[in-house]
Amino acid sequence: MSQIAFIGLGHMGLPMARNLLKAGHHLKVFDLLPAAIDELAKEGAQPASSALDAIAQADVVISMLPASRHVEGLYLGADGLLNALKTGTLVLECSTIAPQVARNVHHAAQERGIELLDAPVSGGTAGAAAGTLTFMVGGAAKVLAKARPLFEAMGRNIFHAGPEGAGQVAKVCNNQVLAVQMIATAEAMAMGVANGLEPVVLAEIMRQSSGGNWTLEKYNPWPGVMENAPASKGYSGGFMAELMAKDLGLAQETAQASGNSTPMGALALQLYRLLLKQGKGKQDFSVVQQLFTEQ
Ligand code: NAD
Hints:
The protein folds into 2 domains: 3-163, Rossmann fold; 169-291, N-(1-d-carboxylethyl)-l-norvaline Dehydrogenase, domain 2, CATH 1.10.1040.10. It is 48% helix and 14% strand. The protein has 12 helices and 9 strands. The chain has helices at residues 13-22, 34-41, 51-55, 68-75, 99-111, 124-130, 141-154, 166-194, 199-207, 214-218, 241-258, 263-277; strands at 3-7, 26-30, 46-47, 60-63, 90-93, 115-118, 121-122, 133-138, 155-162. Residues 7-13, 30-33, 36, 51, 64-66, 70, 73-74, 95-96, 121-122, 124-125, 238-239, 243, 247 line the site of nicotinamide-adenine-dinucleotide (NAD). It holds the Pfam family NAD_binding_2.
């Protein structure tokens, strides 16, 4: 079994690390928040006092951080982990970040003989807990072959998207679709309920009709429609609106770089920025429902 350093134990990282522990791996874990480290230490992980401490004996490093700047801060620069890792270490960088930043980290890793994959995920916190995440992997196929058993301990579908950064490109495409679907579902739910329909009835009709989509299947934004959805828990847990706004910004940058027109993604970004201005950035991204129900 591998000696794994797991860095970033938030909504996603903590359940992912837990599944690696359950699969019998040795984990040394670090987060800026000590409570997350303590929680995993109770379940058998070794607590680390810093990222450098976490990687001291590691063959594998897995990181799950909020955004590009955190990943650059962790790996690059004089104090970055890439300068401290031994040659041949395998790094699985699972955060959702800018494709160009992922490529920069890849190139810095290659120069130091470190094997790295960009491997952002889809499936939400429920998928992370159940070990059913989708991994979208960018990097060399032979490195993915080596990493596959680790991904399989945390996920169900492991896709090789292409070379360095390709996992991140796939991820921003996917999250742009997710945001547009969430907004479309939220505005339709509000319209139907305002016109006298029961939310549960409307949700089920659309779920089984041509408007059916992932948000209607798994993540309805109307409170009370799905018992386990963040909407029914005061929009807590799940995927923060500020992270969705970040991903929509990455999608716009990606479109800009290739000269693509993405009007739906642009509008979705504007609506999420509005939510952030209303102070709802820390709530789950399905809180976009409130744009259509509250004055
Ligand atoms: P989160 O904010 O809950 O967790 C991030 C964790 O990283 C926090 O605990 C934070 O303390 C820690 N952290 C930040 N900088 C650090 C550093 N330098 N060293 C150690 N720890 C550090 O975010 P999350 O929801 O777990 O998301 C993580 C990533 O996964 C993001 O890029 C997000 O876009 C992506 N993602 C999230 C979901 C979801 O449903 N939440 C789904 C798919 C992808």
